[in-house]
């Protein structure tokens, strides 16, 4: 095998109550990366399709490129030549984990291409290097679920402790990406450095409830726990019509609805595909009522992580 | 049946990372309440054994008395006459949920005596009234686990949402009560009203990890998650030799160790009874090294809640 193409899923980080610790993967959208072995040593981004020229072509500054480079260094294979093609199949800067999906697809692809020298869980630190390039910090709440599939808790960074939550809950995710821009760094900058003890307690209760709800599974408990009293009240200000779109989701039967990552995309979880689609249409309508167009995606929670295609 | 005697278990609130939201019950110690139907209407505390005269004898000011009175009012049976005897079998003001155990035993007993007009879960608000008398606020992190058994999350107070965590984890609890006094209200007063966002995130990660660890069960994850970066660093100052006793517990194989409720008692969790006993001896020795005597209790996590004896 001298060429491989891998899909890695988009992800929803934070998931209402779990700021910086919680994320899940979806079946759609996602990114694809094609790797081809070349005689010339080094990692080259030979093409990026679908980014409208916005992403860096230099491997060391590209999330997939740096993830692959860091991986090759770790396994002492910097002699390897790799041509990389990125197929961006989701909006950039959307809060859907676009940079994470590219990094995960890249590092998963090279590991498969080389006959899987490392187990999948060990690929996480390399994908996190991609996040460091893209966002300024090596966070794991997008790369974790993109790599492992399902719902993931980042319990700790030092040492890194990423836990996949076992759940039999059948959940459909609606993602709506309004055509506006929110910079991830700005979205972090507006957060307060202090939280009231009262809100911390409320949030901890919801974190506990969400994990218990997923693992039981208990859909009512999941719904009651999808509440964010710390981050959403601040960041939602950056998203026009946030409250209306959220209310539209809840009115149409969603279990919960909040910001995906640092936005501007929003996610909603529902118990079946019909509800999830209805929720998406209602959310899009809310944005459209003030002239904001959007893209909507509906899919199941992704359980598998990346896959060779 | 015109008389009944009920045992209700002691409880560990907070459980390291879960301040105000988390608690569990133990098989030992606990309190007992005896109720006897009387011809004279009204609730009377006729005797309290083991409190050294410290608890109020007036029913409306006694945790068990007020819980029973509130219950009888709710079910329109204020005509009933009840003589109440409290058998206090654990230290008062110890952080082991003494007031909660009495309130739970009382309200469970009267409900059984009357042929169980209310399901057990519905007794919670009456037991919480006992806590309001004892501590100034109707908290549920002791009465919840004492009434339901096992590990309990108080997700929300408004509306009240108390969740029993289903776990097959086999855990032994060591409780050590040093013979010093910490006032619950003081212990709350020294807490800061603000928490850094960083510590909030760390704590949320541990809350998620603890619930996932219990439900899986994953003992290593339970151990890694039994960490409190918000409350313990402040409240432990009120407990002489806290750090030494905690270190002794961990050195002797405990999965984790922290303050029980608002202290001064400490709890440790272990995987078997031998470890739990060794942990208790080591913790007692740490206190004794500075001349502080203590009582130690070792038992399994209580799964049943109150029982008729």
UniProtKB/TrEMBL annotation, chains A, B:
ATP binds at residues 91-101. Keywords: Amino-acid biosynthesis, ATP-binding, Cytoplasm, Kinase, Nucleotide-binding, Threonine biosynthesis, Transferase. GO terms for cellular component: cytoplasm. Pathway: Amino-acid biosynthesis; L-threonine biosynthesis; L-threonine from L-aspartate: step 4/5. Residues 216-287 form the GHMP kinase C-terminal domain. Coiled coil: none annotated. Pfam families: GHMP_kinases_C (PF08544), GHMP_kinases_N (PF00288). InterPro entries: GHMP_kinase_C_dom, GHMP_kinase_C_sf, GHMP_kinase_N_dom, GHMP_knse_ATP-bd_CS, Homoserine_kinase, Ribosomal_Su5_D2-typ_SF, Ribsml_uS5_D2-typ_fold_subgr. One of its GO terms (biological process) is threonine biosynthetic process. It is an enzyme of class 2 (transferase). It comes from the Bacteria. It is found in: Cytoplasm. It catalyses: L-homoserine + ATP = O-phospho-L-homoserine + ADP + H(+). GO terms for molecular function: ATP binding; homoserine kinase activity. Residues 67-150 form the GHMP kinase N-terminal domain. Its EC number is 2.7.1.39. Belongs to the GHMP kinase family. Homoserine kinase subfamily. NCBIfam families: PRK01212.1-4, thrB. Catalyzes the ATP-dependent phosphorylation of L-homoserine to L-homoserine phosphate. This is Homoserine kinase.
């Amino acid at each position: 095998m001298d060429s491989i193409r891998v899909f890695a899923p988009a992800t929803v980080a934070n998931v209402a109550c779990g700021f910086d610790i919680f994320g899940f993967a979806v079946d759609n959208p996602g990114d694809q990366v094609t790797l081809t072995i070349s005689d010339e040593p080094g990692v080259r981004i030979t093409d990026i399709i679908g980014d409208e020229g916005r992403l860096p072509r230099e491997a060391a500054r590209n999330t997939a490129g740096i993830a692959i480079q860091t991986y090759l260094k770790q396994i002492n294979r910097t002699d390897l030549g790799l041509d990389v093609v990125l197929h961006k199949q989701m909006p950039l800067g959307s809060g859907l984990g676009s940079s994470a999906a590219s990094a995960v697809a890249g590092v998963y692809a090279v590991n498969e291409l080389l006959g899987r020298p490392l187990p999948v869980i060990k690929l996480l630190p390399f994908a996190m290097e991609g996040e460091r390039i893209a966002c300024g910090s090596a966070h794991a709440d997008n790369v974790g679920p993109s790599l492992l599939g399902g719902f993931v808790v980042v319990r700790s960074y030092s040492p890194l402790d990423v836990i996949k939550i076992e759940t039999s809950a059948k959940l459909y995710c609606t993602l709506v990406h309004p055509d506006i821009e929110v910079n991830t760094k700005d979205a972090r900058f507006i957060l307060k450095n202090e939280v009231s003890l009262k809100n911390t307690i409320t949030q901890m209760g919801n974190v506990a409830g969400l994990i218990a709800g997923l693992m039981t599974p208990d859909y009512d408990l999941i719904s009651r726990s999808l509440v964010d009293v710390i981050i959403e009240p601040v960041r939602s200000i950056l998203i026009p019509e946030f409250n209306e779109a959220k209310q539209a989701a809840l009115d149409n039967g969603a279990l919960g609805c909040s910001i995906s990552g640092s936005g501007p995309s929003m996610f909603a979880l529902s118990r079946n595909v019909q509800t999830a689609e209805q929720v998406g249409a209602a959310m899009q309508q809310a944005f459209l009522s003030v002239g904001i167009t959007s893209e909507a995606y509906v899919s199941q929670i992704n359980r598998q992580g990346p896959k060779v295609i």
